[in-house]
Specification:
The protein contains six helices and 14 strands. The longest helix is centred in the C-terminal third of the chain and has 34 residues. Helices cover about 25% and strands about 30% of the residues.
Length: about 450
Amino acid sequence: MMPRVKRATFRACAGWGLALVACSVVLLARPLHAQAEFAQTLNWGSGLIDIPAAWVSPLSGDFSLNWSAKTLQTSPAIPQYSNSLTGKGALQVALFGRAELGMSVLSSDFEHGFYGQALILNQDDFRGKAGAFLPSVAFGIRNVGPYSHIDRFGLGYEETLPANGGSAPQIVPDSLHRDFKTGNTIYGVATKSFSLEDLRASWPDIGMSLTVGYGNGLFSNHGSIPLRDYAADATGGLFYGIKTDFRPSTNTMISLMAENNAWDFNVGTAVSWRGLRAGVSVTELAAGSAHLTAGDPASALYRYPKVNFTLGWASNIFALLKGNVLENRAAQLRKQRDVLLADIAQRQTHIAQLQGEIRRYEAQNLLELEERRAQAQTELQTETEALHRLEERLKRIEIETQGEPETPPPAQSQPPANPPANPPANPQPSAPGSPPPSPGHTL
């Protein structure tokens, strides 16, 4: 068992690290141009390793199939749990970019549970607006169905023969899980995704996602098992995690994840290629080594690290009907390019408006407008820098697609180098009958 001092130090480091990341997100967040992606968790819906994320696949008909396996310690002294590997499968589908529904099969006896999630607030809706710092927010439910006595691993039932006779076996809660109440687990979760390049143009284009949430049931209920025997770092339902993504090639994404699933700390990695995904993770890092005790079945399941494997496939139902079996990253890049082109055009229009305002202020002999002129000049410089970053990102995306853009970006308007700092003190009056001076053409 890990000493308490080491566990406390581990928790403190993890907590401070997460706090620093959270502060960075709040203080430095800017409009997000990279599209975050989350695969299925070990058992339930989209997320990191075990915890959910406030994300839904953006296209209706997107679906994913997932199979996961968990290694367990076994001993002849504990015959109730003799399998060293437990496997589970899940299928989910996205609807309208705002919801996902799915079903998890927890054992070969067809113990199962349904789940769903609704995306209430999508950070992408605030791109380029005042609320760009807001995270995505979602609410969801897990383990909807008749098997309400499972634990966080999806275990809890066994086959027995009817007490009144008969040959057909029955599926009933085992003695260790009879007091568990995890059916209809409800949770809320917030996720903020961003790219390092969005924080500073010189930084690499690596995606980062920060997630925090709270839930009951599967996140807080441990039945009649003493909490110290069930989990090493229980939080009472609070879960959190961080995920980073980078792409070594156009259709390949590598993800690194770390989380606390309200019970213990987990770390893992996954590789995705054109819709296919494989991952490995280690859960219950702070639990220490296994101590199997005869007569204590809980010791065979909890409080020791476990290795998990996942295999998955994601695609779109409508794309399959059209013969596109594997999703192509190039289609996503084209969508991102269209968004960038629209953003560039919007910023160029704004720059032209700001340049026109500056010229009008310079043409007037009103000293009280000097402050407005300086403010517009500052805003012009900010917008110009943002435009340059977008154009650089557009160039990289077009290089990835290995083709010319279908619609060339609008011609860039070059702002004036240095507008006069102050308007003329005493403008010369116009001659009688002469037309008023022209205000100039706006760009």
